[in-house]
Every structure is written in C-alpha cells, then in structure tokens.
Design brief:
alpha+beta, 7 strands
Length: 704
C-alpha cells in the first residue's frame, strides 16, 4: 500500500531533525557521516518504499531556515540528493550555496569542516559535469581545509575525493593512488574505522588497476570493496560495485556471469528507487546480450535504460544511453537509426571521457561503413588522440577493433592493420578472442584469418589469443561429447525399462533427463564464456565415500551389463575436488567400459599414495575392468584429442576420437592432479586419477 503524503513527511522530518541535532551539538564530523548516509537510508526505508532522493531534496527545499548552520547542513544534504538523482547542475548549485552558508557560521571549527565537505561535493559534481580543472581545484581546496581543521575523517574523505577526481586522467594516476592509499589509511585509523569509506576507496583503486591493464588484481580489490560494503549494510554502494565487477567480467568474455552481476545490482537499485543506478545496470545487461549476438534483447535493455535516464537531469547518463542505442543499431545494420542516435549526443552531454571516446570510435566506424573516407580518416585521427588521453586499455582496444574491423570489411586492410595491431597490443586475451569471433561470424573476406594471425604474431599475442580461442572450442567439444554420453545413457535405460520395467524405474530415467537438462544449460554458458565447464569448483571431497556411492548407484541402476565392486583403503584424508567434474570423469570411464568391456565386473578403488616418509600425499581413484585390455604402447596416446587411429599398435579396433579421455585429462589437470592408465592385452585395463592432498588439513565440512 502506498505511503500517505503525511506519513512520508513525518519520516523525512524525523530523520532531518536527528541529523540536525548531531550537527548542533558540535560533533560535525559525525553529522557529515549522517548526511552522507541519510539519502540511502531513506531511499530504502521499509515503511515508505517510494521515498527517493528527489523527495528528500524537495522536502529540504521547502524548509524556511534562517540559521547558517541549519542552511549549510540542509544544503549539503539536498546537494547529495540531487547528485544521486542525476541532476548535476542543481547539485553543484546547492553545494556552492552550502559552502557560502557554512562561511557565515560563527564557530570557526564547524564553519571550516562544513565548507570542506561542501567543497568536496562541488568537486565530484564538477567532475561529473566534465569540468576537470574545476573539480581538481575544488578537491585540493577541500584537502587543505580539512588539514587546517585537523579533522582526520574529513581529511580522508577529501583525499579520497581528490584521488577520485585525479584518477580519470592518466597523467595524474600515480598521485591519485597515493592519495587513495592515504585516504584508506585514514578511514581505517583507530576511532574512525569507516568501512564504507574504505570500500569506496578500494573501488577507485580497483578501477585504476583494471584501467592500467591488470584486470585480475582490479577484480581482487573490487571484491574486497564489495565485502566491506556489505558488512556496512550499504546496499547502493554494493550495487555500484557489482556493476563495476560485471563490466570487467564482460571484457573477459564471461558474459553470463557479468549479466548476473548486473541483475543483482538492478534488484538493489530498484529497491532504493535509484533510477540512475537502474539505467547503468541495464547498460551492462544489454552489452552482454549484444556481445552474445542477442541484439533484440540488447536493444530492449538499452531502451529501458533510456526510459530511466529520461527521469533524471543527468546529461552524461543520457549521452551514454544514446551511445549504447547507437551501438546496438550499428551492430544490427540499422544505419539510419545509428545516425539519429549519434546526432543526439552533444559535446556538452558527452562529459564522461569513456563515453566520449567510445562515441568517437562509433562515429569513425560509421563513416567507414558509409564510405565517407575523408571524414573517416579525420575521425580516426581524432579518436587516436582521445583514446590515448583516456588511457584505459580495454576501452582503447574496443574502439580500435571496431574501426579496424570495419575498414577490413571494406577491403581497406592497409588502413586497418595499424589499428588492429595496436588493439592486439593492449587487449586482454579474452577480449581479443571475443572480437575475433564476432568478426569471423560476419566477415566473408578471403584470407581474413591469416591476416589477423599475422598481425597477432607481429605483436607477440598469437599464443594468448589462440589459447583463448582454443579454450572456447575445447569447452564446446568436450561439452557436446559429454552431452552425447548422457543422452546415450538415457536411451540405454529406456531400452532396459521396455524389456524389464521393474529393473529400471521411470524415476531414474526422469532424474537422468533432468540432470542432462541442467548440464545442457551449463554447456550454453560454456559456448558463450569459453571455459566455464573446464574450471573446477574446488570443495572438500571424500573420495572413499564417493567411490562407495558410485558402486552402489551402478548396481542399483545397471547399464551395459556392468556390475561394480568397491575396494577402499581406510582412513583416507579429504582432498579438494569438484564433484561435478568427478562425475563427468567416471561417466566417461563407464561409457568406454560399456563399449569395450560389456557384461563384466568393474572394480572402483580409493587408495592412498605415500612419500618416502610414509606421509599421504595423494588419493588415487581407480576404475578397473576385466575386458580385452590395450597394448602398452597405445597407453601413451589414448588421452590425446583428435588422434589418428592409424597410430595405434593394435589395428582394426574402434578406438574413438579421444575426446572423452582428453576431456578427463583436462579436468584432472585442472585439479592439479594426474591421470593415467595401465593395461596389457587380454588382462583388462585400469584408469587412475590421483588428486593431491592439501598441505594444510581440509575441514570436515565447508562450514569449519
């Protein structure tokens, strides 16, 4: 039920009065903390969910305040609300007014602190408006004022603000890092311990690491920030971090994972009525869909972001929306719509340097597509300067790939080569591999693969990019092979059920079919992310208990006439393993046994491997059959993928492609383990998987 206007005003009045009391009793820094956090607190108020930033701002604007302290506090709070709502010009005006009001306060200590806080607000608003010089000037003034007032928390806040402002310019990033580290130390000082402030500082530090090309370290810092933000119950701050993490994941080609972060952020922003945040979440979601070739869904996401942006007065957000809609139209070949969208982005709107650089790349690529060669050349020259000024490798690579590939499609390989070469130098392997795949899917040129391979070789990136493409192909091949095995197993069970219904109940068939459906969904993720099915999810794993379970399941639901025995060494330690991967491994072993050793007994074992001192260093899973066996020389090649049957010592056998055992090798080695086989002709074969015992004991349960 919607909250009545009277109740909304009562809630606003009560929280405003509490904040003002803190400021009036002299604890100005505590009051500033409350001012910073009050908008988020009210936006998610359990008793009035439709309370938003604008509503609080409008309430404050109606107050008839005469005392300079009250006016300064109200102005600061109103400025924060307007900034969060996306009305940057109005926010800047209110911060400036609050600074002037604070200057009229008789108490010099309070006056200085409030002026410093208002100056920080002016700095971040000026930065969003695109006035970097003013932003730097105001942030430096805030640091000086906080130092003069000897206010430790406010000094950390001002250093954080200045570091954030400087971080957008590559020339000032060293100084920005130093300021941010100093701010982090200030937030962590005894008596302060501001988890939220530290989290915001780590967020900027993580972004800087990623902007310098160290995405993995950037992600580590962002996840640390996310943990702190959640510990401080800052939902909106957590949502902004989820989006940052999602963008980095998308450039690593982990699109479904990135999209899940975007959807989590979207739920949080929706709960706190943050339309600007919702729009940014839709940008991330739409981008991942566009990269996966789901252009219709991407367009819907970008249009929804545009609707939300229209409710704000944030020019830069509207420009960003226009860019993504234009990019989507460009990818779909809708030239007139792309032209219209690009035309709606004014210079004043493109205050965000990243959006400005991306828009410049799209304008240049669009000019190439329309054969406006002279204009395209001028735009590309301008683009190169803007990308250098931004200094963010992933943004530079994306813009250069976009223009370079468009030139290549038009047959202008000579002009395209330096752009693509530079993109390869700065791109992450996943980003380059994704760009290559997208280009291959739409390019019909002869020799394009060789041309790109030569460029990759010239910059020494062929190994990394080729490995990424190989990983994506392997993920698809292995996944399809395992899906085939699962479907064959279901078909076999159906045959058993038809012959003897009591031996194979329909419930077992249904369970296997559901498990196959789940795996098919995971395989879809593998196609888009390239390596998701190859990366183990390590958890404490009891090999002995697992082997007993596998023997029991095999005997209760027989297939291929196989029966199972278990041979377990007592008191085996736990190892770290992905149970899903182990199920895939034994599934491949069973499939091969059904083909080459049907109607026989399989012995499943779990044994320890000890070093010379008698210490257990590994646990070995064995899968032994009593079938025809293999020649010893053939054991050296059975784990190779795509092997030639003529390589086998024993001819005339259906040796298969090796995909299944090759898949097992990749999974086991991903665990840090070892896989091998022992056999002699006529004496059966045994496949072994050894997993290492961790150096430190593994807890008996994940909760310990």
């Amino acid at each position: 039920m919607p909250t009545s206007a009277a109740k909304r005003e009562s809630i606003l009045r009560r929280h405003w009065a509490a904040t003002l009391r803190v400021a009036q009793r002299g604890d100005t820094e505590e009051a500033l903390l409350q001012i910073l956090r009050l908008p988020d607190k009210l936006a998610g108020h359990k008793d009035a969910r439709e309370l938003d930033y604008r509503l609080l701002g409008h309430y404050l604007a109606t107050l008839k305040l005469t005392d300079p302290l009250e006016r300064a506090v109200a102005g600061l709070l109103e400025g924060i609300c307007l900034y969060r709502a996306g009305d940057t010009p109005a926010a800047l005006e209110r911060f400036t007014g609050a600074r002037h009001d604070a200057g009229e306060i008789a108490d010099e200590q309070r006056s200085g602190l409030l002026q410093a806080a208002a100056t920080c607000g002016e700095a971040v608003a000026a930065m969003r408006a695109g006035d970097r010089k003013a932003a730097i000037r105001r942030a430096r003034a805030a640091v000086a004022a906080a130092e003069a007032a000897q206010a430790q928390w406010l000094k950390a806040f001002a250093q954080h603000t200045l570091g954030r402002v400087l971080s957008v310019d590559p020339r000032h990033r060293t100084r920005a890092r130093a300021l941010l580290e100093a701010a982090r130390s200030g937030y962590r000082a005894p008596g302060i311990n501001d988890l939220r402030g530290e989290a915001y500082t780590l967020q900027v530090l993580g972004r800087l690491r990623a902007d310098d090309g160290d995405t993995e370290e950037g992600l580590v810092l962002l996840h640390k920030a996310l943990t702190l933000m959640r510990r401080s119950h800052a939902d909106r701050g957590a949502a902004t971090l989820l989006i940052e993490i999602g963008w980095l994941r998308s450039y690593q080609q982990s699109h479904s994972l990135a999209r899940s972060y975007g959807r989590q952020a979207l739920d949080i922003f929706d709960n706190c009525n943050d339309y600007r945040g919702e729009a940014k979440a839709y940008h991330l979601i739409g981008w991942t869909q566009l990269r996966e070739g789901r252009a219709d869904e991407a367009q819907a996401a970008f249009e929804r972001a545009e609707e939300l942006a229209a409710t704000t007065d944030c020019a830069s957000l509207k420009a960003t929306c226009s860019y993504y809609c234009a990019r989507c139209a460009f990818e779909r070949g809708q030239d007139q719509e792309c032209k219209r969208r690009l035309g709606s982005i004014t210079k004043a709107q493109a205050a965000d340097p990243l959006t400005d650089a991306a828009t410049s790349a799209l304008e240049a690529a669009f000019a190439v597509r329309r054969h406006q060669w002279q204009r395209a050349a001028a735009l590309i020259r301008r683009l190169l300067g803007r990308l250098r000024a931004v200094g963010v490798p992933r943004i530079e690579a994306d813009g250069l790939f976009l223009c370079g590939f468009e030139l290549c499609r038009e047959g202008r390989h000579e002009q395209a080569a330096p752009l693509v070469r530079r993109a390869l130098e700065v791109a992450e392997p996943g980003q380059a591999a994704g760009a290559f795949q997208t280009f291959f899917s739409v390019s019909k040129g002869v020799g394009v693969e060789q041309w790109l391979a030569a460029l990759a070789s010239a910059v020494g990136r062929e190994t990394a990019v080729t490995q990424q493409l190989t990983d994506q192909t392997d993920a698809a091949i292995f996944g399809l092979h395992d899906l085939k095995n699962k479907l064959m197993s279901i078909a076999s069970q159906i045959e058993i059920h038809q012959a003897s219904p009591e031996e194979c109940p329909l419930a077992a068939i249904k369970a296997d079919a559901e498990a196959t459906t789940v795996f098919a969904l995971e395989l879809m993720a593998a196609f888009s992310e390239g390596e998701s099915i190859l990366k183990p999810r390590m958890e404490p794993f009891d090999m002995a208990a697992w082997v007993l379970d596998q023997a029991d399941i095999g005997n209760r639901f027989p297939s291929g006439g196989l029966t199972y025995e278990a041979d377990i060494e007592p008191d085996l330690p736990l190892v770290m393993a992905d149970e899903r991967a182990m199920a895939l491994i034994i599934g491949n072993f069973k499939s091969n046994a059904e083909r080459y050793a049907p109607n026989l007994t399989i012995t499943l074992s779990a044994k320890a491997r000890r070093n010379k001192q008698g210490k257990i260093v590994g646990v070995i899973f064995g899968f032994a059959d009593t079938g025809p066996g293999m020649h010893k020389e053939d054991l050296e090649i059975i784990f190779g993928i795509g092997k030639d049957p003529s390589q086998y010592k024993v001819k005339g056998k259906n040796h298969g492609s090796g995909v299944g055992l090759g898949y097992c090798r990749v999974l086991v080695e991903g665990h840090g383990g070892h896989i091998w086989a022992e056999s002699e002709l006529g004496k059966g074969a045994t496949f072994y998987v050894e997993l290492p015992v961790p150096k430190s004991p593994v807890a008996e349960s994940a909760g310990e």
